[in-house]
Amino acid sequence: MTGTGLSSGEGRLRRIELVTDTALAHLAVEDLLDELLERVRSLLHADTAAVLLLDPSSSFLVATAARGIEEEVRQGVRIPLGKGFAGRIAAERRPVIIEQVDHSNVLNPILREKAIRSLLGVPLIAEGAVLGVLHVGTLTTRTFVDEDVEVLQLAADRIASMTRTHLNQLDRAAAAALQRSLMPGKLPTTAGLEFAARYIPGDAGGLGGDWYDVFTLPSGRLGVVIGDVVGRGLQAAVVMGRLRSALRAFALEEDDPAEVLERLDGNVQHFEDGVMATVLYAIFEPSMDRVTLSTAGHLPPIVATPEHGAALVQVPVDLPMGVSVGPPRRTTVVDLPPGGLLFLYTDGLVERRKSSLDVGLELLVGTVTVDEAESVCTRVLGRLVGSDHVADDVAMLVARRLPTDRVVPLDVVLPATPRALGDVRSALRRWLGAADAPPEATADMLVASSEACSNVVEHAYGPGGGTMAVHAAREGDEVTVTVRDNGQWRSARGEGRGRGTTLMRQCCDEVDVTTGVAGTTVTLQRRLVGEAG
Q1: For a Cys staple, 82 with which of 91, 197, 323, 360, CB 3.0–4.6 Å?
Q2: Does the predicted TM-score (pTM) go above 0.85?
Q3: Residues 238 and 254 grouped into a single domain
Q4: Last residue of a domain, one of 175, 202, 221
């Protein structure tokens, strides 16, 4: 069989109109591909038509849509870039014609099994980038002519353009959904600290890999992160999600921010080929008066205090994630007095094409003031962004240490289980630090309250379980902690049992245990000055 024979101007125009019909623009990408493939198959009198798109790694072509041999899609055919018929088209960015299919020129076994004799394929190119391949095949030997190539390339250009648009939309939607799922939906409520954060997607090609995170640590410390994965779109957001999870895991095992970033860098270099990211990781001590931090190529944070105002922290900047093996990473200790705040941000906030980075940093430092965290975010965005469009994503996180007189009482309700004891201890340690309790008083109240909570876990409930409620408040120079349950206590069993009250009295100035039909309440009081007991 020879060419299609439609060589007149009228026939060629009809082909172009059929392939480029603007009515296709409203279709979803899957329906669009199916409709275009059916039209292409009809126009070229072909038996099969298929689209293969490059996977995110750009290493394989994956069968995405097919008409005539749908098995290609259902079986997830993958063709290595540069190999076989389709792989050659994508790698060489040019049409390829095969008049007689055999094992030497076609890798896809389905085409051979279905007795496809001849193939014509062209690259899908949009905005200078190869997206994939469009090919047609016939069950009889066919000599494809230049006009066939022209029509197929026209269809490919149409598919590439519309697919790029649809994929960009899907990419942005998926990245936005992923970003929302990974960003803290609600920043944690932590005694002594006030948080506020913002994330603004940039205009240049959808979302990217900017993120922030706040999480508690078993030691009672608080981890704070801000980072930026180089790149844009869904792929950057996916990498960001993996880095966020890996950093959290390493933070559970290491107390030094530099060691956490060192381990994260090893993870990136081993598992994330070609990825680069900047990350700043900081840890608030339970007392909230000190922050230890380390930065992997990230811009320096700003600290603002009531006494000295705002300034960039003089922190050594180590290599970004994924660059190369460098010198050991370093940790910096920053003092944060009551009322002071730590301001973290990504480069999209301060980098502008028409001005230097120093100008942006100077403007930012001049804008950050000691104020409520939400007010700081609003003021910074109003001055540095205003009504302008930002080309790059912007992430920012403000952590403000509250004045001691503004520390709110602690209230937690947890299951009366052994696992919850560590959570209570961490929460109480953070609260005592925020309440400016000295080390000795903190240690005593932790011992006494842990004993009270342990007694609830062991004695208050039967197999059905229950809850324990812990409340802590400071009034003047005295701290009061109450531990309540609504169970019916069982008598202590075994040698050496039932000594918890004695231990609590040794650590506190006053201990009161009230038991009734509604449960038991243990009240612990400790002065923050002088000796207990």
Answers
A1: 91
A2: no
A3: yes
A4: 175
